[in-house]
Amino acid sequence: LSMYAGDFQNAVKSDPVGMIKMVIDNKEDVVPAYVDSMYSGAEFSDAFEQVEQKLWEQMFSEFPCDMKGQRALYFCGIIEKANIYSWSDEVIERLKEIAINYEGEEGGKTNDSKELSCDELINRFLNCIKGNAISAMGHLLWNNKTLFTEFKDVVDKLILDDDEAVRMACFNILWPIYNIDRKWAETRILSIYESDVRMAGFRDSKGMFFRLYSKYKESVLSIIQRCFETNDKRLVQMGGYSICEFYIRYNEFKDVMSNMEQLNEEQVKAILHMAVIYLRFDEYREIGKAIILKYKNSEVDVEMPLGSMFYDNLVDVGRDSEFLREIMKSK
Q: What is the pTM for the complete model shown?
């Protein structure tokens, strides 16, 4: 049966409109394995955009997904992939139900979630079905702000979920909400960051730290410091980038920046990476050069972060001659 279901999946990929209609017309005789193949084949079809909303809605209605099977994953994928932002109430309710109540086998889930690295946690949230439902909700919100009222209560439940991967996935819906109701989103975003330092590994967290800084300065700086002091490579990198950038722009983290000898190799490299980036900007070039010179005699190997300023032509022989002479004197 599995072999034939795979062949059917390929047939749906080739002609999703025709095959979905055929399955609906013969709904009384179709076994569940073929329904799952229809969902997955439709989601990954090159002719995906040929399927109109009416047919999608009919497929969802005739063959609904439950809260335990993989069909829910394909359902969420279709919602996120389609350029449709005003679905029926039934579809929206099913999406919300998956986000809150899905209880099937989740990819990568483990009882030792506290021990997962940041990268492992990110991988888990990308593969869990609740996370995919949350991502689909966020996708809809970017283009249909009226759904915010539909999703508010769901978000308030999800940010308290015991599963760290689900809480991290909530950023995918809180990012668009930040542009709809900033005050409402800010407190919830901050609560997730404060619940587990690994949450700072989510993409564009550094950008969000800058957005939250003016109102939640102490909390933001504390989160960054915690990242920098972990043993997780991704978080140390995030912390180092943020510390350097907040130092350059707001003169924060002066103690860290003035005590280079207490930092390890990963911390130093992260700081120097960001300092080199700031050589691009006239306003910050001098402070960027000052940071680099402060670390030029570090005991750690700084060839990679410093080498990029030459590869990317960020220094000029005429303009930066004194700086280059000092670099050449380094160990």
A: 0.92
